[in-house]
Design goal:
Blueprint lengths: L2 H9 L1 H8 L7 H11 L7 E5 L5 H10 L4 E6 L11 E5 L7 H8 L6 E4 L9 H22 L5 E7 L4 H9 L2 E7 L10 E9 L5
Parallel strand pairs: 1-2, 1-4, 2-3, 4-5
Antiparallel strand pairs: 5-7, 6-7
Helix pairs in contact: 3-4, 5-6
Amino acid sequence: MPKAWIRERKNEHYYKKAKAENYRSRATYKLVQVNEKYGFIKLHSVVVDLGAAPGGWVQAARKMVGRHGFILGVDLKPIEPFPQAYVRTIIGDLTDPDIAQQILSFLPRRPDTVMSDAAPNVTGVWEVDHALQIDLASKALDVTLQILRPNGNFFVKLFQGDLMDEFVQTVKGHFDEVKFVKPDASRAKSSEMYLLALGLKTISE
């Protein structure tokens, strides 16, 4: 990894802020900023975080839901456990056909929000990385549609590119309201953005 990139990252505001405030990732602030604006994670909510390692979004969400809510973090990698009884983490693969049932088995009820900050191992070839990210987002959507409660919410990371429109249209077919958001904590130079989908439609709709 280039030394200049590492130096830039360590000097970056949200990286330093996360270190100072004992968060596991600068990504914590992305979720905080978007939820402050749109309020899609509320007190007492049940939330599933796909691609949760190292746990920055779990840290943010546990404060949003409080001790009467529930957070489940899912990732291919082990996540350092949290002491709170209402926070669980499991090792899980979004490509596993049984992952939705595995997730539901750990939840007190169907989740109010499913979110995914999952990202591929980037190759540096933009078209490839964009396609990999859309594939991850599509898998997250597939899981979400199997587990989310009616009128629930979906929040997912995307990379801008020519495959994005088709994915967005698919999401719009399932949710009442869909919007793009780019939190201040996202790097300005990054093509990363987030899709927030509110209000899962019922089958009859």
